[in-house]
Model the fold of this input.
Amino acid sequence: MSDLSTRALSPALDAGDHEILGEEFGRVLVYGRDREAPGAPVLLVHSVNAAPSAMEMRPIFEGLGGRPLYAMDLPGFGRSDREARLYTPRLMTDALLAVAEDLRARHGGSPVDLCALSLSCEFAARAASEQPDLFRTLALISPTGFDRRAPYDGPLGSTRGKPVLRKVFRCSGSRLYGWLTKPGVVRYFLRRTYGSRGVDPDLWDYAVRTAAQPGAKHAPISFLSGYLFSRDASRLYDTLELPVWASHGVRGDFVDYRDLARMETRSNWTRTEYATGALPHYELRERFVSDYEGFLAQAG
Done:
């Protein structure tokens, strides 16, 4: 049964919304603006952590103009359903594909420009590798799967999930999640993400509020126990033939992208480093949006 109590959470973005329903992933909330604008639709996908939502993509959603623009709340987060289930890359990818197919139908069969953040880059790569005709470009912000432990070339569809950890987290989930999502703890982890104390106050405030929603612990339990990390991430990235733009910062906890260097030899990959933390689109909003617009224009 869908957890409709998430409707009580105020919208993360100042925009209209619609819902996509799937038997496997439930109800997914999609924000949209400039729906009648010409051009390919852009789909923004937030990261995965203890309290993410479409709010993480707000600077791009507000700054990118002249084209149809959408941002989704992944299953288990934001204003989408938060049912007590095992959340996996397969489930997240299926939800992403369902949204992208809906947008293509809404926009005359146009392929989608997909932009994802952090761990969701792996879901985006899986979606684009499985249905390449559905997507025009792929933008990866602070992508996972390129650290010192790469390449991740496990069996297709496999995850790094630990059943024992999931059992422990399910038993202590409420207490653990309650601690992880205290306002001070949320601020602490955001500062580590930024690599500085300059955390966006609206991002912090919405993270605290979304974490207080009924069922908010379920998807993070899968995340903390490894089930949302793909063991085949490198294999997915290697299959991509569409234009790919990878961008990341050099400050904070997320700075290990050593395996990304091998992708720069490929003609369809470009890479941009920013003097920021893992959310360059928050710290350098105008420059990031301008760079993304340039990438989209060149791909077009």
The chain has one domain: 4-299. The first strand starts at residue 16 and ends at 22. DSSP finds ten helices and eight strands in the chain. The CA atoms of residues 62 and 211 lie 23 Å apart.
